[in-house]
Amino acid sequence: MATKQVQTTEWTAQELKERLDKREKVFVLDVRNRDEFSAWKIEGREKLPMLNVPYFEILEQGGKDDVIESVVAYGKSRLARELPQDRPILAVCAKGGTAAQVVEGLRELGYDAINLAGGMRGWGDFYQVKPVIESPKLSIYQISRPARGDLSYVIASQREAAIVDPLRHIEHYLSFAQEKNLKIKFVLDTHGHADHISGGPALADRVGAPYYLHPYDAIHPIDVLPAKLSFEFLRDGQEFSVGTAQIKTIHIPGHTLGNVVYLVNEKYLLTGDSIFIESVARPDLGGRGEAWAPLHYRAFERLLKLSDSTVILPGHFSQPKEANAQGLFAATLGELKAQNEGLKMVQQGEQAFVQYILSSLPTFPPQYVDIKRVNAGLLVPDEEKASELELGKNICALAQAYA
Ligand SMILES: [Fe+2]
Ligand SMILES: [Fe+2]
């Protein structure tokens, strides 16, 4: 079948995110295969109207020699009643190429069709920065990878910075530090991640800063092999000074054995994978859910003793609608005690909590074993493999968060 190079109207991932945040109307036509679509799709703060029609079906059923003509034929016969005329149609594929052809055909039919540049790959690799607080004595920035629900942080004070849970594309942190004239003094991971590849070791190496990880997480929990990493040992109570800001480490085994959270100036708690906005982290990604669930309970018991005014800054979100009016994923501990399902269960005692946790575990993504190997330096993927391992959203929270 003949194909031709087409010039199409397109939105970058950033443009799409800005439009979604403004709740602009858009209809998504996702042309990936059905299994890819059901595993992972574009999400807005509100439910987006959406249709999945695999590209190969459009070509087969359009039945023309030319791709664009096939799209036009299929569009006339099958899509006319499904696609709205009153809003842009965002065509989405895996990498942006095939959706461009679909856009061309739909525009010939008069639709305001737009291609998502880079497709789901581009959407997955998009990062966004939002300030939590900005002042000379203390600034905290939430750096998110919205498509994956991953959150990382820059803590800055008097031109010094610590980066917490940096994600894989370290150029975002390097350019941000340069833009704000910050010297990266520490790179801190809350734990050995299972759902995404840490940017910690590479970032620390690039800027000549120490990379900190709790030593319990420097042993792969399933292989039981030591990490091949250069890192400094974290310990409970350890403090880091960044300018005039103080960061205190609290070791709370449960999600992993070396899991820590960071308390900044006794007010902001970077919770990594422990407390999220709607739910709490799962304890089974090291393959020892039953043994670790009681530890997890004690971890939350300890965190719940902090002041209710503590601002919780989590390591993930499950759905964009968890963001507050400023687009930040943040809430006070007092608010979360009242609304977070997992924290409400902690308040019912250990037995009820453990039972709840073990009956709420989502599926265990098989690639998470390999991602933990990558984060322990036991496996070194190329870019293609790294991207493939990180496809889709994180599944670090309990199932209720996805209901
Ligand atoms: Fe995790
Ligand atoms: Fe995670």
Model description:
There is one protein chain. This protein has 403 residues and is α/β, with parallel strands linked by helices. 31% of the residues lie in helices and 21% in strands. It is built from 14 helices and 20 strands. The strands form four sheets. Strands 6-7-8-9-10-11-14 form a seven-stranded mixed β-sheet. Strands 15-16-17-18-19-20 form a six-stranded mixed β-sheet. A five-stranded parallel β-sheet has the order 1-5-4-2-3. Strand 17 and strand 18 form a beta hairpin. The model has no long low-confidence stretch (mean pLDDT 94). The structure holds fe (ii) ion (2 copies).
Query: Taking all residues together, what is the mean pLDDT?
Result: 94
* CATH class designation of the largest domain: Alpha Beta
Q: What percent strand? A: 15-25%
Radius of gyration from CA coordinates = 22 Å
**Uncertain stretches:** none
Do you know the CATH architecture of the largest domain?
A: 4-Layer Sandwich
CATH superfamily of the largest domain: Ribonuclease Z/Hydroxyacylglutathione hydrolase-like
What is the fold named in CATH at topology level of the largest domain?
Metallo-beta-lactamase, Chain A
Number of domains: 2
Number of strands: 20
Bound molecules: fe (ii) ion
Biggest beta-sheet profile = 7 strands, mixed
The count of helical stretches stands at 14
Query: Helix coverage percent of residues?
Result: 25-40%
In summary, what is this structure?
The protein has 403 residues and is an alpha/beta fold. It contains 14 helices and 20 strands. The chain has helices at 13-21, 34-39, 55-62, 67-79, 97-108, 119-124, 171-179, 200-207, 289-303, 333-339, 341-346, 350-358, 367-375, 383-389, and strands spanning 10-11, 27-30, 50-52, 89-92, 113-116, 128-133, 139-145, 150-157, 160-164, 183-188, 211-213, 219-220, 225-226, 232-233, 239-242, 245-251, 260-264, 268-272, 311-314, 331-332.
